[in-house]
Amino acid sequence: LYRLYLVWSGDKRVVYPFRYVLLLVSVSVTIGTLRAIHLTSPDVSIFVKNLQKWIVCFFSLTLLTNFTSTLLIASRIWWTHRQTRQIQVEGRSLSPAIMMIIESGLIYSVCLVILLALYLSGNYAAYIAQDTVGFIYTRLYDV
C-alpha cells in the first residue's frame, strides 16, 4: 500500500478509499480468524470448517489487495508514460518498469492461488506453500 501511495502521489481519491475499506475488512477478518482459532482445540487440524472459511477469507483478501494494488500502480505508470511521451528522450520507455511491476505482482498472486488451492483441497503441502509464499513475498518486495 505504501508503494501505491507513492506512485499515486498520495491522491486521496484513489489511495484513501482503498486503504480505509481494506483496513475495515482486514480488521474484521483478523478478529474473526482469531476468534475461530481461540474457539478451536489446539490439537485440531487447520482444515476444520470453522477455521477454513476465515483462512480462505484472509488469503483471498491478501490476493485481492495484491492484485488491485499491482493494477493501480501499473496503470498509473502507464498513464504517466502515455502523457509524457512527447517529452521523453528517444529510446527511453517506462514499459520495462510496468512489466516488472506486473510480473512481481503476478508471481505473488500465482503463489497465493496455489496456496489457496492446496488448502481447499485439504493437502498438507499447504504448510510448505505458506512458508514459500512468505519467502517469495520478502524477496519480491524486499521487506
How would you summarize this macromolecular structure in one to three sentences?
This protein is 78% helix and 0% strand. The chain has 5 helices and no strands.
Please characterize this protein's 3D structure.
The two termini are 13 Å apart. This protein is an all-alpha fold and 143 residues long. It has five helices and no strands.
Q: What structural keywords apply?
A:
single chain, 0% strand
How are the SSEs ordered, and which strands pair?
Blueprint: H1 2-7, H2 12-39, H3 49-83, H4 95-120, H5 125-141
Helix pairs in contact: 2-3, 3-4, 4-5
Helical fraction = over 70%
Specify the overall morphology.
Answer: elongated
Largest sheet: none
Distance between the termini: 13 Å
Number of strands: 0
* N-to-C order of helices and strands: HHHHH
State the low-pLDDT regions, or none: none
Overall residue-averaged pLDDT value: 82
Radius of gyration, taken over Cα atoms and rounded to an integer in Å: 19 Å
